Amino acid sequence: MGIPSSTLKLRREDLDAALKLEPEHLSCYGLQYEHNTPLTRKLESGRIQRIEKELEAEMYEHTYERLEEAGFAHYEISNWARLGEECRHNLLYWRGGNWLAFGPSASGHLDGTRWRITPRLGSWLEQVPWAKVEDLEHLDKATRARGRLMLELRLCEGIAQHELVEVLADADPGGQRERVLGRAGAEGLIESIGSSSCVFAMSDK
Description:
Elements: H1 8-20, E1 25-27, H2 38-45, H3 53-69, E2 73-76, E3 79-81, H4 88-94, E4 107-110, E5 113-117, H5 121-127, E6 133-138, H6 141-152, E7 159-160, H7 161-171, H8 176-186, E8 190-193, E9 199-202
Antiparallel strand pairs: 1-3, 2-3, 4-5, 5-6, 7-9, 8-9
Helix pairs in contact: 1-3, 6-7
């Protein structure tokens, strides 16, 4: 969503075309302009223009309604799936799990250590089966907790209260994030659902 010169009519047609393929899962991300990319340079030089935020919001609302109508469950901000077809890798990532990396430019994670394999196919082929790790990062407890908070709040199932308390203890010693969450709750941007588990999730309002 958000492609320059796109319209709501085109968005509807694209989504209908995708549904005709009978997929089990659909990821519908909004376009982001990343730093120092050809697309961003075109934007900065005026060769393309962003679509209006209101139009992109309409596209998102249509996507939500159309996929719900087609039998898809909305389980993450930008992801929909039929029952039982949620993306296991993405869920693992959003929940802070561990995964291995295979292939050029693949990334892996193990208990707070992240790495990325060489991105160039030629170099990777020369190094198989033990391709070079080019980026290695060790995340401290606070950084991991901040990432977990951000990612789990993307999930429609939210984050359980006891997990939230644990995360905030590691990521928010000054209480800043707790205050931000409080304001978000007051504005209806997140909500507490369920009486016993007290899950905090993004509001669908």
